[in-house]
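Feature request, filed as a ticket because there's no other form

It would be nice if the structure record came with a short human-readable summary line next to the tokens. Right now we just get the raw output. Example of a typical job, pasted below so the devs can see what we mean:
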Amino acid sequence: MNMNIKNSAYPIVFVVTALAMGASLAFAQMDGPAIPGERPDEAVEGNMDQPEPPSADPEASPEIVKTTASVMGFEIIPKTGTYAITADANVRKGPGTENKVIGSLKQGKRVQIVGQAEGKDWYAVSKDGEILGFVYSKIMLPVVDGTLSEETRGVLMQKGAVCDYRFRFEGKTEVEGGAFDTSDYEIRFRCAGEKGEIVFYSHMFLTEAAIKKSFHQISMDVRSIGDGMEKYLTTNFLYDPKTGELKFDGHSIPRFAASPEMEKINVKTFQEALLLVMETSISSWTDDAWDSLFAKSAN
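Raw output as currently delivered:
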């Protein structure tokens, strides 16, 4: 068995229980250096050879393995992810208000969770690799970092026009209240067809926290299509990063866009979701939408 263990300011104990065999094996981080690499600032790498398990009866039920961990002496169910703090929060030495306050986190701060206290609404959290303690889970939101390191270019064929696009990350905007950010993107289109050539821009955003149960919002705005600056075409989608589900959630001006042929689809990454929202949105535009684009370009 190969294990990589990175020490922190507080001991973490990993326990693997083989229920079918009725045996348990614990790997513990102990206080005090016993072997090279056990200091808090070092990583420990070791190989531990375990005896071969007894041969299994081919007709027996498969072995069930349960993995747990211990943080500050409390058992947790391992879980990972980046979360935003939605209100100023105390960090406690255990999962419950009866435990000592050992720190605090301001609204809007982001932390990584290590796991959830078994049977309780408390997460063990870390920051920059250091275990901080326990925070009440109801004031935390899972977040997706929508940053893109590189722009994407491609070509689309729509309504008799050939459009090349450039999709790039612009930055982040703090949502009112400061609980989380939106990731913002700019898309430049250059289209050529029977009606001429046009260049126009669209803006898209992804809410980095869920707004409807586990769904994040992705919206694409095109100010060049609409009835004026205060009313323009927006297409909305909902995206669940855990399941990969992406589903259509409506247009702001139905006259300029029809419902897409495929209203629900699964994707593997948020990057794939962003590009699919762009492609699906533009493919749903009506002739009135394209006429509006070319008319404004001619003026």
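Something like this underneath would help us a lot:
Residues 152-298 form one domain.
The chain has two domains: 2-142, 152-298.
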